[in-house]
Records
---
Amino acid sequence: MRKLILFVLSNVLALYSTTGLSQEPVRIVFMDPLSGPFASIGNSGLKQIQFAADYLFNSNGGILGGRMIEIVPLDNKQSPTESQLQFARAVSEGLQIIFQGNSSAVANALSATISRHNRRNPGQKVIQINYSAVDPALTEDQCSFWHFRFDAHANMKLNILTDYIALNDDIKSMYIIGQDYSFGQAVSDTSIRLLKEKRPDIEIVGNEFHPIGQVQDFTPYVTKIVASGADAIITGNFGADMVALARSIIDSGLDIPIYTFYAAYDGITATLGADGKNKIRLIHNETSNPIPTEVRKNFIREYKRRNPNSDVTQPRITNALSMVVAAMEETQSTDPYDIALALEDMRFTTLSGEEIWMRGSDHQIFQSLHVSVHTDEGVEFDADNSGFGLLSEYHVPAEETIVESSCRMRRPRL
Amino acid sequence: MLEVFIFATLNGLVMGLLLFMMASGLTLIFSMMGVLNFAHASFYMLGAYFAYSISLRTGFWMGLLIAPVIVGILGALIERYGLRRVHQSGHVAELVFTFGLAFLIEESVQFFWGRDTKPYRQPEALSDPLFTLFGQDFPEYRAFMIFISIAIFIALYRVLTRSRVGIIIQAAITHPKTVSNLGHNVPLIFMGVFGVGTALAGLAGVIAGPILTTFPGMAVVMGSIVFVIVVIGGLGSLTGAFIASLLIGLLQSYAIASDVGMPDLLNLLGLEFDQGHPLKDLWTLTLPQIAPILPFLLLVLVLIFRPTGLMGKREE
């Protein structure tokens, strides 16, 4: 209890000491689930953005000639409705930069709200920094001038993942299983389409949907996978659904590769442990191992020192924050319109020493993508302190990830 | 097809028996107090988390022994100092009390253990396959789960119907005043039953944790299905709970394993709809897709056609 009080006190003091400086802080909203069933991932993201702001900028004298970055956490419980309320709150407090990542449903709702708000309140614009919601529509049919995405979208990722699968001649049949909602269905539809183009000989022997967060035991599904004789599995599952599915597959003695999006960190790596070795593969940006530069290694080491039980799970949060800051420095302004213009077609060198590109026509980031395997060999930075982590084994440079977009952006008239 | 059938049966059995371990405690507590314990699944979650923490220090087996005892004592204390006081204010107050308790336990678990999935593992000794059939392993651990659950059912049944304690409990449930007049301490009996009921839920958590994953949402996922079982089996009936548990375990397992759906039915009827049909989603629905909601469908049907449940005695 005393620890808790000290913790709260020190935070309050820290807050005062930063706001007490002569210059106004630059306040950035971090809106994600901080309570409820998806809180684990939201809180982990919050820690990462706070650390990035502190380590990269505040401890080096701030930005824009001495202003500190202050992260304002707002809890949207991963619900579009709650997000509207939190958005109204952010606006009433004069906050103009919103980071959000979890759930494409929330990102879509927020994007629509922000476009409308900015049209009606020209003097009080807001910009949306989407660091993780991967529904392609956000930078295609539904694209908005005020929305920027710093993660590869689902189709880009699947394009690379299926390229990688196509290289493996041992795979003759594929089983697709996913959560029964927009993302799970998108993964299924796109995988089937792409596999048919790239490897017509691969037979899709199963295409299964299950209710999201409702299945206690995946063994009955695994029985079907075994009976189908599949050589590999693709799944877009996340959270508990991902762990339970992988565990059931492993317990059944089924020794085939599982291709995933989200099967690492936040307890998942530790839970799979030695049983998942060399079976689980992920598609993602920014390698976990090997880390290419000493700068990023130091960044991770310092993060681990301050948060021993947490990992840098989403380096793209750091990239997004750094690019927004670069845009502010370039224009010497914190106005969302200026930031947006500066972000368009910005080329930025990340901590990994890689140049990434924010395409101006649809506000989609392009950077190298990697397929990694769950293993304990050659892993310098593990996940969940388990000794296991991700080792990248297939790299695709940014130029090869570029896809066309159907975005026809409505630009604001001033 | 045979292989799918055999494994579906085995999986259904494992799941059904696990559900029974929780439903037995819940139905006992209901017949005693006349109130559904909304926090029952939370004790299941506590069992898993306690066992996880203990297993980190002393291994799985100590967790199996100690965790249910801790959960049982906790349950008994909650009955003694919480529920018993609330009881005087009537059933609604009790219901609200257990409802609040469920939230409290869930938040406490997140506070102490964090929100991540916990790497709670089955013991090394049981991590090999028991047998391999048609290329699929049946893990020893699942056989162990079946064994424990059946042992619990037999023990519980014998204690309740054959032993002196069991007779007193049964009497206390139906005629508390008479039993009290005969010199038995009825509140103590209630506390004991509540403790044993929660300990059973804890035990279910201990053995389910390693295969159904240990995370803060596990109580919510399990909670609703256990209520369904208790209602379908007939509130207060142990045999009913046993039958309903197996029924639902097998029903879900078979439904997932099956490959039929609306398209097959339409083929049979010789009907066909084009892709643009407004009810396309309905016409393409398959049985595996709706498997997890089948128990609730069954619940509605049972309540319509047999409101007392399969083995329920109450006709009020």
---
Amino acid sequence: MKRQYADLHLTTNIRDSQQVSVIINKAAQLGYNLIALLFLPNTTQEELKQIQTACKEAKLDLATRIDLKPRTPNDLIFNLRKFRRRFEIIAVLCESKNVARQAAKDHRVDLISFPSTDFRQRFFDMAEAELASASQASLEIDTRPLLMLEGPARARLLASLRKEVAIAKGFKVPIIMSSGTSNELLMRKPQEQAVLAQLFDLDREYALDAVSRNPTAIVTRNRQKLSPKFIAPGIRLVKKGKDC
Amino acid sequence: MNALWNAITKLYGEHGASQTGLTLIEYNPDEKLAVIRTNNTALNMTRASIATITKIEEKPVAIHVLAISGTIKALYKNLRH
């Protein structure tokens, strides 16, 4: 079966319709089937519909995403309660160990990511991976810093990623490769993202899954959960009425 | 080609760059299309290096691989399709 490619982290300002259109068309041209744009908490239904129409014209599937950057675990829990039913993807940028642990164990979190330039704030260790594996959270890696950094900074980032990827593979934590950019010149084809993933020892099949199967699975799972027919994992409403 | 050599040297060092056997076969400035030959064993290195090119002479650029083939004849056939 042909792979369906997805880029779950396009950070363009959704209020800039011209830039959104450029990004959508570029994603379609590069061969993506599904994209997730970064939405704001106060995004209106009209804005969403406008973007959905643009994606439909480009034959792209659109997923809604929000990035949380909580300071404390309580802050994260509060935001999850507030946004979980409004967005298809919730990503958490972990800047402290407490937040990272809470994000990894909370099943409402889809993606966990870490600052790419401050290596002391990358908390993806074995304990984190074990929690993430149990709660089905995925580790997100952006390609933007790999393209923008040079020299020792890139070497240090690659070393960190190599370590994190080995841990994630050991604990069967899914890895997601995304662009993480708002600039169309920093967007790459899914196959190119997969080749870049090989820089930190992700083998070809695993790297291709990181841009196709893994992100698509998150969106499919969350759409089922957000559907009004969903009751619990594995249970959904098939028929309603007196004749059941 | 200088941008590609620089990218490979930055990412894999001079030892890595020496394994790629890079050669420019053709460059069409009108279509902005280049045909590059590389060793089969260094294909991933070359692809990764191409993906990391973000600037040429301080101008922002993006380079994408359109097709890969073992022979130039088959490559042009792929590109035409």
